[in-house]
Amino acid sequence: xTHIWPIGGGKGGSGKSFLVGNLGVWLAEQGKRTxxxxxxxxxxxxxxxxxxPYPKKSISDFINKKVKTLEETVIxxxxxxxxxxxxxxxxxxVANLPYAQKLKVLRAIKKLSYDFILLDIGAGTSFNIIDxxxxxxxxxxxxxxxxxxxxxxxxxxxxxxxxxxxxxIPQRDFKKLxxxxxxxxxxxxxxxxxxxxxLMKEQYPQKGxxxxxxxxxxNFHLVxxxxxxxxxxxxxxxxxxIVNKYLGIKVEFLGNISYDDRVxxxxxxxDSFIYRYPYTQASLDIRNFCNNILSISNxxxxxxxxxxxxxxx
Amino acid sequence: MKPFEEQHxxxxxxxxPGASPFEIRNAYKMALQMYGxxxxxxxxxxxxxxxxxxxxxxxxxxxxLIDKETRLKYDKKLVEQGIIDEESLxxxxxxxxxxxxxxxxxKERISVASIPKSLKSEAASNPVIREILAQDVLTGEDxxxxxxxxxxxxxxxxxxxxIRIGFLNSIEEDQFDDLPSKFHLRSFLKSYxxxxxxxxxxxxxxxxxxxxx
Lengths: 313, 213
Ligand SMILES: Nc1ncnc2c1ncn2[C@@H]1O[C@H](COP(=O)(O)OP(=O)(O)OP(=O)(O)O)[C@@H](O)[C@H]1O
Ligand SMILES: [Mg+2]
Known about the structure:
Number of domains of chain A: 1
Strand content of chain A: 5-15%
Bound molecules: adenosine-5'-triphosphate, magnesium ion
Number of helices of chain B: 12
Number of helices of chain A: 14
Strand order of the largest sheet of chain A: 3-4-2-5-1-6-7-8
Helix content of chain A: 40-55%
Order of helices and strands of chain A: EHEHHEEHHEHEHHHHEHEHHH
Strand content of chain B: under 5%
CATH class of chain A: Alpha Beta
Order of helices and strands of chain B: HHHHHHHHHHHH
Number of strands of chain A: 8
Oligomer: heterodimer
Number of strands of chain B: 0
Number of domains of chain B: 2
Helix content of chain B: 55-70%
């Protein structure tokens, strides 16, 4: 079974690529065949983080039909079991990836067979980005303790949820739904998205149920990166709480990752932080994060295997 | 997903109708961390206006529930409206604090020095605690885990050390700013740790590392 983990977060510089790189190396060392895909379509740089300054192939080759299959763009890394599809070399190639192209990429990713596929998703909350989150029911949001970063996380979570609602209903009905929601809940403290969901459950009970199920199946997680001494260590946990309480989406907190100046050194030397500086708080935190990702995935495989066995019986 | 105007006071504070005053205080503190004006958690989640309304509801909820009489009245109303069950309500007698140790509690307060050595030796051999103590740096969360591994409640430590429970809570939550000074923090930490560990100094140093830098 392939576990696809989209890893993103609305804001640039929060540490997405850094975490994908370290998680990739760690998983590979546990013997898991792991593929990292840089789908930061505007500013790909994952290759640099894992020490491959000049990747010979990239996802552009697939998008531009230079090669037939996505698999052909996979390159090996210095770490056994760890593979990379490097991001677009030139942002012009894919800056405005047309919808059909994007679908093609998404489908191709889903067809790849590895133990783990980690998607390094760029900053922003555009449709392009959200669709990479919709590819899997797993996902990690990375935030820093800064309000700007937190703001973008909420925006991203809402956008993903909104997209789910949007996909359920045909365009025309959806417009009507929005209009009703806006007038009916105008003076209520309930937010626009929740209003939509409530209304949908009322007017299309079947679809409302389906949405509920699909939201319950989402396995989203939050990591708070670059936590400094002065920051409130409960920030991430509280963020999850508010999202759960007021959006009805379960986002599980995976823990804090401390800020450490040496991260910068590791990135500059294109070296994996957890192996270069293993005995630091940040490394402990990252390993903790990696362990969590692995156990969540294992749990999922087990549930699936149980279900399969049941079917066969 | 209930709008906050429609939540009753227990819902708004995320506690059960059976919550003790201690839990109510804690929940309120947590709520302020979430919705307070300087909190980054809710800053971009709610509008300024929404947050102000939420805060005023929270305050009302807290003041109503923390006072015995107003709470009784409020509970009665909820029961009458069929919103909560009478059986789920808080009743004082059923919630005697659980003693740290099996000694019959005498009228006299047991001093810290007379906490049985068994607790400390249990701490020395407890695997959870040993694992935590292998770390170079310790957080409030670690302290809490150790305390809980021994089944000691914060209320009890507060009782023995005479340190206000709010302060102890801040220590476990790494809320250094809530404490009067760094000096106080050190001395509170010492009393706290002396309740269940023989080598408090080394633990204190590792806890303080994050503040002393
Ligand atoms: N825990 C940390 N401690 C200190 N610095 C960190 C930490 N995590 C990340 N950084 C720093 O933040 C910088 C940005 O990280 P990274 O490139 O992974 O962010 P990103 O989220 O992928 O950004 P973008 O959206 O622009 O791709 C890194 O160069 C690194 O120096
Ligand atoms: Mg990046």
